[in-house]
Design brief:
The chain is of the alpha+beta class. The protein is built from 12 helices and 16 strands. InterPro entries: Lig_Pab1020_C, RNA_ligase_dom_REL/Rnl2, RNA_ligase_Pab1020.
Length: 379
């Protein structure tokens, strides 16, 4: 198979790859993806090859887009930053959206989600919003972006004041995953008019824990997610750290759909709160505020879901999406179906030249679980 050859795998490794059966089709064949002849994604990590890696046979040769490396999390800022980094760190905003890698295949841009799917909706947005001139100069590179906004199909948020946009946080070589430095990335983004995640500054590591603490408190008050702390030269792996408000927001979402999300998702966020409360040396009032925020995040959405099912409603997440083309909309809906997403169309209309569709993502497992217990069945 061309995938093994493109990755320069040995015969033994190629055989193992086939035996493990971890390659999956990365797209639905369609004229919208006319530059791609066939493409496969890695459903799991394979040796040094990251989960979400994409290998595509395109009209201008075989292209590799390595999966985005997982960023590990700091539970404490001190002494973690001193232990992990050199003399200086760059502190960058961690935006609350979904991870996308944008590459150029043939004549068009393609948007690849974290798991390696070429997403029709995100690809249409990338072709509309990203300056393609970047790829004329850096053809072998990939823009690693956070896709954010109210009209996100995966993480809809209204805190950024945009319907939908991309913010670059890394620029990486597609085949090797080697990143450019923070300053190189910033310079290139300015050159091509690409929006990028805010860089709060470069700080001495010995004092960075106090600086990050202040930034986190400010971001929390604004309802934003957190920070990614990086080696300015990108020689060491970055780490991430989130606000209490984001942890509570994640828990609110998880307990709204409690049977559709794993216990680890919930547990890890509560543990983060304990470490942050300890390190921030909170007053009694601040500690009580944190406890109330967490308690409300857990109980309030869950009770809302129970009430809805009690009223013979389904537990759903409502999403508003905006398309330029009906065929891309239908392609995306098929993409959702094949991904196992249970959805219902609520509304479909034209708004100027745009197509607006509102869908309810049905959380069937949570709905069924609540219904089961409301009928008197045991846990």
């Amino acid at each position: 198979m061309f995938v093994a050859e493109a990755l320069n795998l040995s015969k033994y490794a190629a055989k193992k790859l086939e035996e493990k059966n971890i390659l999956r089709e990365a797209l639905i064949p369609h004229s919208f993806f006319s530059d791609v002849i066939e493409a496969y994604r890695f459903d799991k990590k394979f040796g040094e090859i990251e989960e979400g890696t994409l290998v595509a046979k395109t009209t201008n040769g075989v292209k590799i887009v390595r999966g985005f490396p997982k960023i590990r999390r700091a539970l404490t800022l001190y002494p973690t930053l001193l232990k992990h980094f050199g003399d200086y760190v760059a502190v960058e905003e961690k935006m609350n959206g979904y991870n996308v890698r944008i590459a150029k295949f043939g004549k068009n841009l393609y948007a690849i989600t974290r798991r390696g799917y070429i997403c029709p909706y995100t690809t249409e947005k990338a072709r509309d919003l990203i300056n393609p001139d970047f790829f004329n100069k850096y053809s072998d590179y990939v823009l690693c972006c956070e896709a954010v906004g109210e009209e996100s199909p995966y993480v809809p948020k209204d805190i950024y004041g945009t319907k939908f946009d991309f913010y670059v946080f890394d620029i990486r070589h597609g085949a090797t995953n080697k990143p450019l430095s923070v300053s190189e990335k910033e310079k290139i983004c300015e050159e091509f008019g690409l929006k990028y995640a805010e860089i709060f500054g470069i700080f001495e590591t010995k004092e960075a824990h106090e600086v990050v603490k202040d930034i986190i408190k400010k971001l929390g008050r604004e309802g934003r997610e957190g920070v990614v702390i990086k080696d300015p030269e990108m020689k060491r792996e970055p780490i991430k750290y989130t606000t209490s408000e984001t942890n509570a927001g994640d828990l609110r979402y998880a307990f709204r759909y409690f049977n559709d999300y794993g216990k680890d998702f919930m547990f890890s966020r509560i543990v983060r709160e304990g470490f942050q409360s300890f390190e921030f040396k909170e007053s009694e009032e601040e500690f009580r505020e944190r406890c109330l925020r967490l308690g409300m995040a857990i109980l309030e959405p869950m009770i809302q879901s129970i009430k809805e099912v009690d009223q013979n409603k389904k537990v759903v997440e409502r999403i508003k999406l905006r398309f330029k083309d009906f065929s891309v909309m239908n392609l995306f809906l098929e993409h959702l179906r094949r991904s196992g997403v249970n959805y219902e169309i609520v509304d479909l209309k034209k708004e100027g030249k745009d197509i607006i569709i509102i869908i309810d993502r049905v959380m069937k497992s949570t709905t069924d679980k609540i219904k089961h217990h409301l009928k008197g069945n045991l846990w």
